[in-house]
């Protein structure tokens, strides 16, 4: 298996392209981070501002969902099409999320006193 | 390590050390098989004792308390510690060969999974000697188990926690192995069906075992550290245990039965000498069963009082599972249809499996009907149903596959004549035991009772049922005898023992060298070995690479050390409610051993080693004579 | 091969997935995270069904117990630590080992800050009588947030081990996937925390 790995020197153009690509990618990550901070701030703000609970609850759950998708696809690189078997990984993650959702649904509806 | 294959005469100590530290999937497969057989025998004896107790009305062979312990340990052991490891044994031994891999993705974790399972199982069984076994049923409902005196339930919780962690780790390992380690050309839709079912089963383990871990943790802290998850006086709710347990428990049924389906899907085409009918629909049905398996757990709780809406939803989703299962049954029948059938022992088991399992499935759909379930709940009808599924499906698959894969795993064959005796004793005994229990249930006999009164119309049926159990025991004894004489028989040293092998594992000459494939095979289609055979390829496979150095993982004793650490810590937790002074220190020491071993693993590089071309050539000549594996 | 010395010019584009072992690790950590999803879902669902449940006349409720400022600071610490580990991975791609170590160390420090606040919070609750055995609510709360805290501890020990072990030898294809797996795990801890601060703290305060 060890012999599958090859050491290859990159050409200067390729090297610089990848450097640049990485830097652009990092800039995008910082923007995503700013969005996450903003969403968090928003979530705390609507709670402190004391809106109706019927508005706040779905709203902050939505914010959480957006933030989690950002984490998964941007910080954790689930959007990376060249990632190894990333399609299989996505299937597993979302299948897990669907199952997790059924847990919440049943525990909130058919467990009572 | 590379010299291990060459020097085949070793002292007992060296062999033992080799097995304690091995990361070879073939050896771990054998270890799973041995451990599973041990616990299968224990749990089978427990069943036999129960049947002897129920043979006559008002019998006093065992006391009521002992009977509760027997039935709890029978269920727990059979599901967690016998069926699961036996199937894991086949997965370990066969799946890497089927996909053309040299080992699993994480050989270290493979070994860790085995040792956690084994020490957890030993811990659970120590309960017999240390103050009484668990006695609240294998489901261990919190409303009952929370107030069970003694340490029985504590053994159950801690033992299953440890062995469950091992199962989860093995599951992760299999998923990654099947995703990443397939040989070139082995696309997902060319994978043999046993590999497919192993993948889906492992996915079910992946999602179903964490809820069990959580439920066991709640029970652990409730009983030993004063938490209040299930204690209604302090706001807890025992229904939470039922939900978490069945969120795990129902997928567990499919975790066990899907590999059995896979094994029969391997056996049937070989002996019908025909390609598996409807391969892609088989794959689709497997995935669908896996998905639906998670959406039905509350059908075990119809009588809990979930309300008509929830009951209806879960009833419908439960019945839906019959559709993909039916697809599979029809595909097996159509594979056999028109084939040139050889009735060997594995095929005999497959032919016995189809009607038995269908019977179990049909009663399952009956119970899915919520109103009818109110009548059937907690009666012997349920006992009959799940034994038809488990014995008629899983145990027949395990016995059949033992005969089928014995040549690959041990380079020996099991005797066919004795195998047929085992089959007929076991098969007739099985139907005798459980068919009649349907009617006992319909007559009103409740399950989990240690005795009954005479002249209720149950005497004769119970007697017949017990006779059947004794016949099953005789069948198993013949199998054990068969195994013992096979160990003394001559090695086979052959390829394709059954003559009609189709998938890659049959292309290898036995004994399989520790690196499996000297060159990674190139898979050119579904049923690759059959393909190559029919094109006249003597070597059985096309290679994807020239002969070169092979990279293999190092052996390690750390998995055993980690497992021992948890084993020690479990004793500390067990005696915590007794207020002994040493309980907390023992927990800390145990966990320190485990965490320490993990840190050592993290800090010490494990780069594996390379087997050089000359060594490969030497090994092959030593195993197969001049010219190697030709 | 794993110990080959690289230069920025020969360092592969995807060092975390460059060898077969690295690919296994990459898929493996993700599959492990999938199992963690249902682990947390089970604890979470239990918490929701036991929220505010306790012995008759219990004086504690989520609405009065939780304090938003503390939760806000903890959230910010953990979110930022997620970004710093992204920075570490950025430097790993550029074969800048010093950058990796520095940003990973900052991640650890932020994680330690989070942990300290969590310990303070737990200590405070126990001090006012809301201990683990007080009620079903307290058991469920401490188990949920404690399970997350345990993940933080594991992540910290893991990253510290990596930083110390590799301090003298620099990046290679053997340890790059390990750093990457640790950073994926660390992000997942953050994902779970997003749900915890939303559902436990924010919705808890709403009552």
TrEMBL record, chain A:
This is Cytochrome C oxidase subunit IV family protein. It is a multi-pass membrane protein. It is found in: Cell membrane. The chain crosses the membrane at residues 30-49, 55-76, 88-112. It holds the Pfam family COX4_pro. Signal peptide: none annotated. The keyword Membrane applies. It comes from the Bacteria. InterPro entries: Cyt_c_oxidase_su4_prok. Keywords: Cell membrane, Membrane, Transmembrane, Transmembrane helix.
Automatic annotation (TrEMBL), chain B:
It is a multi-pass membrane protein. Keywords: Cell membrane, Copper, Electron transport, Heme, Iron, Membrane, Metal-binding, Respiratory chain, Translocase, Transmembrane, Transmembrane helix, Transport. InterPro entries: Cyt_c_oxase-like_su1_dom, Cyt_c_oxase-like_su1_sf, Cyt_C_Oxase_1, Cyt_c_Oxase_su1_BS, Cyt_c_oxidase_su1_bac. It catalyses: 4 Fe(II)-[cytochrome c] + O2 + 8 H(+)(in) = 4 Fe(III)-[cytochrome c] + 2 H2O + 4 H(+)(out). Its EC number is 7.1.1.9. SUPFAM superfamilies: Cytochrome c oxidase subunit I-like (SSF81442). Residues 11-524 form the Cytochrome oxidase subunit I profile domain. It is found in: Cell membrane; Membrane. Its main location: membrane. The chain crosses the membrane at residues 30-50, 70-91, 112-133, 153-181, 193-220, 240-264, 276-298, 310-334, 346-366, 386-406, 418-440, 460-485, 557-575, 581-600. It comes from the Bacteria. Belongs to the heme-copper respiratory oxidase family. This is Cytochrome c oxidase subunit 1. The lineage of its organism: Bacteria, Bacillati, Bacillota, Bacilli, Bacillales.
């Amino acid at each position: 298996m060890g012999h599958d790995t090859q050491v290859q020197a990159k050409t200067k153009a390729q090297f610089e392209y990848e450097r640049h690509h990485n830097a652009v990618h990092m800039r995008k990550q910082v923007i995503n981070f700013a969005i996450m901070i903003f969403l968090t701030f928003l979530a705390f703000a609507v709670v402190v501002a004391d809106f109706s609970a019927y508005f706040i609850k779905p709203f902050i759950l939505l914010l959480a969902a957006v933030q989690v998708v950002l984490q998964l696809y941007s910080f954790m690189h689930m959007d990376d099409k060249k990632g190894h078997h990333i399609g299989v990984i996505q299937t597993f993650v979302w299948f897990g999320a669907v199952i997790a959702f059924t847990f919440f649904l049943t525990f909130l509806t058919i467990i009572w006193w | 390590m590379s010299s291990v294959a060459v020097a085949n005469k070793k002292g007992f100590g060296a062999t033992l050390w080799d097995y304690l530290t091995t990361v070879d999937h073939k050896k771990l497969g054998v270890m799973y098989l041995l451990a599973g057989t041990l616990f299968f025998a224990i749990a089978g004896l427990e069943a036999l004792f129960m049947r002897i107790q129920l043979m006559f009305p008002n019998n006093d062979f065992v006391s009521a308390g002992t009977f509760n312990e027997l039935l709890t340990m029978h269920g727990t052991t059979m599901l967690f510690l016998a069926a699961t490891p036996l199937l894991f044994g086949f997965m370990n031994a066969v799946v890497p060969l089927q996909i053309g891999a040299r080992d699993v993705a994480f050989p270290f974790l493979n070994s860790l999974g085995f040792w956690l399972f084994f020490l957890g199982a030993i811990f659970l069984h120590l309960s017999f000697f240390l103050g009484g076994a668990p006695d609240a049923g294998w489901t261990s409902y919190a409303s009952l188990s929370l107030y069970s005196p003694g340490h029985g339930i504590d053994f159950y919780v801690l033992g299953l926690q440890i062995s469950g962690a091992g199962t989860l780790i093995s599951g992760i390992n299999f998923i990654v192995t099947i995703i990443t380690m397939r040989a070139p050309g082995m696309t997902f839709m060319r994978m043999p069906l046993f590999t497919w079912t192993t993948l889906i089963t492992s996915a079910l383990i992946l999602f179903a075992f964490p809820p069990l871990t959580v439920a066991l943790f709640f029970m652990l802290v409730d009983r030993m550290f004063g938490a209040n998850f299930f204690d209604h006086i302090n706001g807890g709710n025992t229904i939470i245990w039922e939900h978490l347990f069945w969120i795990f428990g129902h997928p567990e049924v499919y975790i066990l039965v899907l590999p059995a389906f896979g094994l029969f899907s391997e056996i049937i085409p070989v002996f019908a000498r025909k390609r598996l009918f409807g391969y892609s629909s088989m794959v689709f049905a497997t995935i669908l069963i896996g998905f639906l398996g998670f959406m039905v757990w509350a059908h075990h709780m119809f009588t809990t009082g979930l309300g008509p809406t929830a009951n209806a939803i879960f009833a419908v989703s439960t019945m839906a599972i019959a559709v993909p299962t039916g697809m599979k049954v029809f595909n097996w029948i159509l594979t056999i249809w028109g084939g040139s059938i050889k009735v060997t022992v594995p095929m005999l088991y497959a032919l016995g499996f189809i009607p038995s399992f269908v019977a179990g499935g049909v009663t399952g759909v009956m119970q899915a009907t919520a109103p009818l379930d109110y009548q059937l709940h907690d009666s012997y009808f349920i006992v009959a149903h799940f034994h038809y599924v488990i014995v008629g499906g899983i145990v027949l698959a395990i016995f059949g596959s033992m005969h089928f894969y014995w040549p690959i795993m041990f380079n020996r064959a099991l005797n066919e004549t004795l195998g047929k005796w085992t089959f007929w004793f076991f098969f007739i005994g099985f139907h005798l035991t459980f068919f009649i229990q349907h009617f006992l249930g319909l007559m009103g006999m409740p399950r989990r009772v240690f005795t009954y009164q005479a002249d209720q119309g149950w005497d004769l049926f119970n007697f017949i049922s017990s006779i059947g159990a004794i016949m099953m025991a005789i069948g198993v004894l013949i199998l054990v005898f068969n195994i013992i004489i096979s160990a003394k028989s001559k090695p086979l040293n052959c390829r394709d023992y059954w003559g009609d092998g189709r998938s890659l594992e049959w292309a290898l000459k036995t004994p399989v060298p520790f690196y499996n494939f000297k060159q990674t095979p190139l898979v050119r289609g579904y049923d690759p070995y059959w393909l190559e055979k029919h094109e006249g390829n003597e070597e059985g496979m096309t290679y994807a690479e020239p002969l070169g150095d092979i990279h293999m993982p190092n052996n390690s004793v750390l998995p055993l050390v980690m497992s021992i650490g948890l084993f020690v810590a479990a004793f500390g937790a067990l005696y915590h409610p007794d207020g002994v002074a040493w309980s907390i220190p023992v927990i800390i020491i145990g966990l320190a051993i485990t965490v320490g071993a993990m840190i050592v693993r993290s800090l010490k590089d494990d780069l594996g080693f390379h087997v050089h071309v000359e060594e490969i050539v030497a090994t092959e000549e030593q195993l197969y004579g001049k010219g190697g594996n030709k | 091969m794993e110990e080959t010395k690289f230069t920025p010019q020969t360092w592969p584009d995807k060092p975390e997935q460059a060898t077969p072992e690295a690919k296994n690790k990459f898929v493996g950590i993700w599959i492990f995270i999938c199992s963690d999803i249902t682990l947390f879902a089970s604890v979470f669902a239990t918490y929701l069904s036991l929220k505010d449940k306790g012995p008759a006349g219990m004086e504690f409720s989520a609405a009065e117990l939780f304090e938003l400022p503390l939760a806000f600071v903890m959230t910010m610490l953990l979110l930022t630590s997620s970004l710093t580990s992204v920075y570490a991975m950025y430097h790993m791609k550029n074969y800048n080992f010093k950058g990796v170590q520095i940003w990973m160390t900052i991640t650890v420090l932020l994680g330690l800050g989070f942990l300290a606040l969590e310990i303070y919070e737990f200590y405070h609750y126990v001090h006012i009588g809301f201990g683990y055995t007080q009620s079903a609510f307290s058991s469920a709360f401490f188990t949920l947030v404690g399970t997350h805290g345990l993940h933080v501890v594991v992540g910290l020990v893991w990253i510290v081990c990596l930083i110390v072990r590799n301090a003298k030898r620099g990046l290679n294809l053997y340890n790059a996937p390990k750093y990457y797996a640790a950073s994926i795990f660390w992000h997942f801890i953050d994902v779970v925390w997003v749900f915890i601060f939303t559902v436990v703290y924010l919705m808890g305060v709403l009552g």
